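User: Quick sanity check before I run a bigger batch. Here is a single chain. Can you write out its predicted 3D structure?
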Amino acid sequence: MANDIERAPTEQEKRPATTPRPTSAAKFVEGRVVALKPWTERLYSIQVEAAVEPFRAGQFGRLALPGEAGEMIVRPYSFVNAPHERPHEFYFITLENGPLTQRLVRLHPGDPIWIAPRASGFMTLADIQDADFLWLLSTGTAVGPFLSICKTEEAWRRFKKVVLAHAVRYAEELTYQETVRVIAEQRGSQFVYVPFVTREDTNFALKARIPQAIQDGRLEARAGVPLAAEGSQVMICGNPDMVADTSAVLEARGFKKNRRKDPGQITVENYW
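Assistant: Done. Predicted structure follows.
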């Protein structure tokens, strides 16, 4: 995705505009790096063995490393692994001056890494209603939480069909293809994968932004599934422009945001 950088905290997690206090290592559990995989020049996944509390697919953890002044540098990253899988895995994009990502990419198996003991986030199936079709719409590294969801039994028990759309700039950024292949083999016609590549031509991916492909009907045609408020739940995760534009297109079709006291069909999370 064009502007996919480190994941922003949710509104509940944002602190007032005051001088931040250094984060103590005592708030984290120490784990060990199992593997670091470079997918492209900037895209990496890291596997971590650590004793964290059980989490729900779609949630995120907070990784941390000590900074030069001894403070802990902390960033939230979604779990790519399903809750029953080990080691824990996180997918991220490096930033040129990223205080954490530039340290993460220098780690080796066996190196220490710290992680919050409890996961956070509401991008889960827990608060959405059952429906015929579950649409998982993502850009860039935001495909991570959806892969976690697709590797659980809950998604396949509650929905007749699951559509995973993943939009990137270049074809090499369509990572986790082996994971997608395994899910497709296990779930058969119950699973539909729709890749998007916006900045180069391919013979397999849609060349469009996700909201545009919804508006002109290409996404539905490719998925072979109707995208209508009746019978659908849509989870949107990615850069804020995609999330906002896709939500607006869906709302024009009669979808509404999902809230605990007012259930709807759209559940969103921004990666920025």
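The chain has two domains: 24-115, 125-270.

User: Great, the batch can go ahead then.
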